Structures are given as C-alpha cells and as structure tokens.
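4.2 Preliminary Data

To establish feasibility before requesting continued support, the project team ran the inverse folding procedure on a target of 400 residues. The structure was first converted into the token representation described in Section 3, and no sequence information of any kind was made available to the design step. The complete token record follows.
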C-alpha cells in the first residue's frame, strides 16, 4: 500500500549535494579573472578563461569587499555610477561571477590572487583544520600562525606578471601590507598603503600610468563591515555603498589610455533574523554536537570534523536535522559535486583541511556557536554559501 502523502511530508528527503549551484570554476569564477587578464598581457603560462574580456595593456581590479551582484542590483539609487555600468559594460551588460565556495573573504582573495580554486590554493574556509596539528586555523586572521609558504605554495598572478615585465602593484590599507593572507594571496610587485579611499583611487591611477603594461589591484573593506554589523538592509550599509560608488567613479575618471578597470567583489551577503528558527546554536544543540571534534567554517558554510570513527554518524545526524535547509555532504561528496573545484583540482594537501561533513545553507539560516564564536554569532549580515545572494558578485568594466 502506498504511504499517505501526510506521512511523506514528515520525512522529506535531504537536499542532494549535487543539487547545490556549484561555482563556475574555469569559466566564470573569481579565480578566472586575473589569469584572463594576464593572458591578455602575454604573461607566460596563462590562458583566457573568460573569453569575452578584451585584452588591455593596463588592467586594474577594484575589489569591494561584500558587494554582491544581487545587492547592487537592488540599490540603483545609492549606486548610480555602478548601476550604469551594469548596462554598459563590454557594450552590453555587466555580468556576475561566482566567488567560489565558501563565499568568504580569505577564500575569495586567495582565488583572485592565485588564479586557482579553493581546492588547489588551500584556503577553503574561514576556519579549517590543520591536518598537521589538529587545530582550527583561522585563515583570515592567520591564527594560530602557520608558515604562509607551506600553507599556500603557489606564486600569485602578480608575482608571475612582475617576473614577465609587467608593472604589478597593490594599493590597499597599510594594515594589510605584511599580513600572511596578503603574502599568500596578493603579493608580487609593489604594495602601496593608503588610508583613505580617495587616496587609493588616485594612487591606483598613477600606478596604471607608470608603465606600458600594468596590473594594479585595489581594495575597499568597509562596505563588508557595515553589512556584518548593521545588515545590508541598513542605512549604514547604504551610506557605504554611496561612498563606494563615488570611489569607482573617481578612479574611472582618471584611467590612463589603454586601460581596463574591472570592479568586482569577494562575496555577497544576506541578513539573518535573530531568532531560534533562523539561528541554530551548535553549542546548545546536543544532536549536532554528538561525535563532533571540531566545528570550522562559519554560520552558512560549516566544516565539521568528526571524532575518528564517527564520520558516518555525524553525516547522518546533520542530514536529518538540517537536510531541508542545508546542503549537507560528506567531504568526498562535496568534492565530487564541484564545491571546491573542478574534478581533479582538489589537492591531497588540501583534502584533510576540508570537513568530514560540509554544510552549506540554502535557506536564510545560520549554524551559530554562541560560546566558542560569540562575535561571529552576533553578526547581522552573513555569507559563505552558494545561494545567488552570496555567491554572485559583479564584474563591471570601464575602458579608456
């Protein structure tokens, strides 16, 4: 006899890992941008992964932390210059890129700078386990300290461009000049620190004009900070977007001849309500804690490290508890589904950094950890997963 529909409603099937909208590695991800630009400047070893980008002698990438494609499209009044670029880039329309998984700053910056997906560069999350020590490694703050070269051994695109005779420069906050994340993701050529956004725009334009072939990167972080603290539906965030829009216009108006400026971001963001329905507290949930040795990642993209021998039990439990709201996968399932790179791109040295179980949010929900992650658990705006609001970032072009 067929089971009544009402019974099926009480036993929904968990989301299949391969149903998640995996990033477009190799054709339309952040990791494909700099290799495409480098190929257009005849830097050896690179090929065009985004063929619709026309080569330029001088290229500038302005990365705005936290500016998602969907958030930009939803705020045309606050960002008139950027909104105009949505309709005018490359003679047609601006397009989105996918950030890579997880959609978080450390992972995305490494993807941008190395031109490799997370499974290759090895920064696959906000916090991940170091297989050599068994400790959680915060890859944004680089705590506990780990040898940068051992953790991420590949040269950056900036380094390779510099070696090929291209003038390479990064213009950012002085705070980031000597951080390990900068060293592994964005080093190569000259780092120039400036505090104000206006000074960065002016200096980026000067660096572009400093040579016949130039590759310049500049960065702005405060939009992301406003989103985390106040949410992307806040006046604070809108005010930051208005400022960012003016910065892009300032830089665009100073571009030297034969330059292409690309405006992009490292992730989008969503606001998550502060209630038990939307914020599941790992530290207060005995089911989710059972068999778990370490909890990594962040609220919308969790790496879960099981006690040896409990991997299957943890996977089963997390699927039963979260399977309607999260894509929950074993490490091998997540790799096979292309979450961290195309087939064959996840390297053995990175394999053990990935969770035994990986959970990516589909709905507007978080797995917080109020005791072990009090600051992160208090954030209004969040990101990390593969939903369009988090995964899609703009690729807007201005040419001179």
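Position-by-position output of the design step:
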């Amino acid at each position: 006899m067929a089971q009544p529909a009402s019974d099926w409603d009480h036993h929904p099937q968990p989301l299949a890992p391969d149903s998640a909208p995996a990033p477009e590695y190799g054709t339309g991800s952040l990791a494909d941008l700099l290799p495409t630009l480098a190929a257009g400047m005849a830097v050896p070893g690179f090929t065009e992964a985004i063929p619709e980008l026309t080569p330029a002698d001088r290229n500038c990438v302005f990365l705005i932390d936290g500016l998602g494609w969907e958030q930009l499209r939803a705020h045309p009044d606050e960002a008139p210059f950027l909104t105009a670029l949505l309709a005018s880039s490359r003679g047609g329309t601006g397009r989105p890129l996918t950030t890579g998984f997880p959609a978080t700053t450390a992972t995305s910056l490494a993807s941008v700078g190395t031109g490799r997906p997370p499974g290759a560069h090895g920064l696959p999350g906000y916090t991940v386990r170091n297989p050599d020590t068994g400790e959680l490694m915060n890859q944004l703050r680089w705590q506990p300290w780990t040898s940068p070269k051992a953790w991420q051994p590949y040269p950056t695109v900036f380094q390779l461009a510099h070696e090929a005779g291209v003038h390479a420069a990064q213009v950012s906050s002085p705070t980031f000049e000597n951080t390990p994340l900068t060293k592994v993701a964005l080093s190569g050529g000259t780092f120039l620190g400036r505090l104000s956004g206006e000074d960065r725009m002016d200096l980026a334009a000067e660096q572009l004009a400093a040579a016949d072939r130039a590759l310049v990167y500049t960065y702005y972080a405060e939009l992301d900070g406003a989103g985390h603290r106040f949410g992307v539906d806040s006046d604070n965030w809108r005010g930051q977007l208005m400022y960012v829009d003016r910065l892009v216009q300032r830089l665009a108006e100073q571009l030297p001849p034969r330059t292409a400026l690309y405006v992009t971001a490292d992730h989008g963001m969503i606001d998550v309500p502060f209630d038990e329905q939307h914020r599941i507290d790992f530290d207060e949930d005995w089911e989710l804690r059972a068999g778990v040795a370490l909890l990594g990642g962040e609220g919308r993209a969790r790496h879960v490290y099981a006690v040896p021998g409990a991997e299957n039990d943890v996977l089963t439990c997390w699927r039963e508890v979260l399977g309607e709201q999260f894509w929950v996968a074993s490490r091998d399932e997540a790799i096979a589904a292309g979450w961290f790179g195309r087939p064959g791109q996840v390297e053995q040295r990175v394999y053990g950094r990935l969770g035994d179980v990986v959970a990516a949010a589909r709905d507007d929900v978080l797995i917080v950890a109020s005791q072990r992650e009090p600051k992160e658990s208090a954030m209004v705006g969040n990101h990390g997963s593969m939903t369009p609001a988090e995964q899609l970032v703009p690729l807007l072009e201005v040419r001179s």
